[in-house]
Design a protein that fits this description.
Number of strands: 38
Shape: elongated
Strand content: over 45%
Largest sheet: 7 strands, mixed
Helix content: under 10%
Radius of gyration: 32 Å
Length: about 500
Amino acid sequence: MNKTATFLSSCVISASTMAAFVNMPQLPVNESPLANATDVSKQPLLQATTPSDTIAEAQWIVYPKSDVQLIGGYISEEVFYVAEFAEAAKQLVELGYQVELNNAVADAMWVYPNAIVELVNTSAPETVIARIDMEFDTTAYVEDEDELILVKSLKNGDEIVETKIEWHLKDSGFSPEWNTKIQAIISKQAGFLGVKVEQNDLNSGIWVSSNMDSNIGFSGMGSENNYASATTMANSLKQANNTKFSLACVFTSVSTDCDRLTTLNDPDVHPIEKPSYQQFLGLESQFQVETALDPLTEYEFQVRYWTEVDGNYAASNWSKATTFTTEIDTSYSFTALNDAQTLRAGEIEEFRFWVKNNGNDTGRNVSVQFMLPFNVLEHVNGSLNETYNATLAGEACSINVVDGKSYFKCVADTFPGGELLTLEINALIPASVGEVLNVYYHACDVGCEDQVMSSAPRKVSGTAPKSSAESEEESSAGSLFWLLLGLPLVLRRRG
């Protein structure tokens, strides 16, 4: 179905047209998988709340976890008032941080399809604290179904410090036409609210008419202090030989005029890249993903519902994204290549294992560890690397000592199913270890902190003789030692 439509806000709408108006469906809420779920099937069953309206289609998207959200609805009514649609289609989006504006704290925003953002607090979402407005209420524009509203969170480490909202708006209803990207900016770190307009021909319709009036207003302030008309913008830009517009107001200077052209150090729009998503279409409030997703990967999913009246279509806003992590089918086993060896105290001995991935999936960033139950730093003869070292498939491993135990830590960036990797450890065997040395090891790609390491005993020669009591105690362990010696040692993890 063709969901592309032309919106002509300045036209008069007849009563018959209004009668055919198609309402947007109610916003869906994701139900399954649950937020932050792990070990989720690579072909998950996606579920959302049952729509209150009869739907023509459910549009599902799944994409690797992203700092970009998709929001916004859609309507294909041929003629309607943009302002009316904008109010019905506004969507509440949480910022993920708090910002103080004009002695009030905002933690969320209403985002409108016609380039308006209203900052609010979730405790009182109808009370507007500040408003970023590009005033396209009186402008006709075309919005294709793929021209989504994008919201991007910019981080400093794990902290969100800035939010960008981007619209792609077009005017094909008037002459001359224009086509541009608009961005609103909320910068917690730099302390301003701002707008940017993509580079445009200064003779295009966006500048030569009164179609666009940009302002940033704070609660309790008149917009005249923070106002720039399209004509004023165009004249200033022509004088500056510039074809880009930016406007910013700092949080703390609510009584000061906004810098209409150059406050933003970088006035370029830098379009937001939308996530690379898989799309699935269904007829119900649940959908079984048909194409397997990548294993052990964080994904997000969203859905919106479509309805149809007399050939006119409308879509709900996109549901809030839910993050989940897919399962992985990996199973790692260790086979000792020299398990019958007798270690010699005072000598550097080699431990060799084959590590195999018995699963069907390729392990990624697989942790392979070998542990000696003593502090190797107390027995170094020469340099550490000469006395103790390890490699996995020829790549060097690190050594960490924790609580008197020495961990040889190796990482396989990729470990395909069915393949073998060789683990080699060279270690000086101190006389103090006794006549039997237990060595420990495991491999994992998730949940490593919860896994218990497997162990295997090695007989040691050349150590100090034991007392009779110690000998009796260890003789009872001898049978178990030889039993374990002949068995393959397996660690298994399946997502």
